Amino acid sequence: MAEADQSIAQPSLPQVRRLEAVSFRAWPAASVHYDGSWQVRLTGGHPSKRVNCVVALDRSDTRDIRLRLEKAQRKFLSYGREMVFRETPLAPPQVVDVLREDAWHRFDESIVMVLDLANLGEHDVMDHLPSQDIGRFVDASLTLQNEDPALKPALAELITNIKPPSGLFLVEVPGNGPVAGVICVHDNDLTGLLQLAVSESHRGQGVGFELSYAALRWARLRGAKMAWLQVQADNGAALALYRKLGFQEAYRYCYWRPEGVP
User: What is the pTM assigned to this prediction?
Assistant: First the structure.
């Protein structure tokens, strides 16, 4: 697992709240329910944990923890999904204590990184313009990430439901299929990079850097001031790419699942 950025002491909770809110808009769940400040996010057609989890958004909201977890579990079961709890710096420590006491398992730590776009360096790389062809992008993304083609309708619906303006960036080789892809979501003065993927045959050749840089430059020209992204903490290659672009760690999150769930 990647080491924590030693320059990060305690995350800024106002920044965490803002980045969480913008990430919800950038990757929207089909169904969102609130139990106090807990957000229950469910998407029947797509398995992404970010759109199928419970997130606590207020550290002071600690009432009836076990009762609310059980209530959320029933809602997940009605969707045919196993419940997961997403722990961010906004989660009350008391909730995490209950998860530990009840033998839930912690897994999949991710890092949220940010970049002041005023500090985006100048690089001599090929420019790329975004596409609005969702079907083409979805086909490419599923191929690049080696995912089930049956997920196409759900992924297409998820991308269609993104409310802020977004650009779908692709690199393709005629007759040889997609090489790389990324989504750039521009939300007021923030922009997010999502779903970056590079084909195995083109990794380590700078294609991911080039495409990400083009997307960030596109967002900056549209008025974005800060970029953000989420990356798994053990993805060393992606972390190296993002740090080369200038991204730094803002905070981390992880998931919890009940005992007995693989």
Answer: 0.93
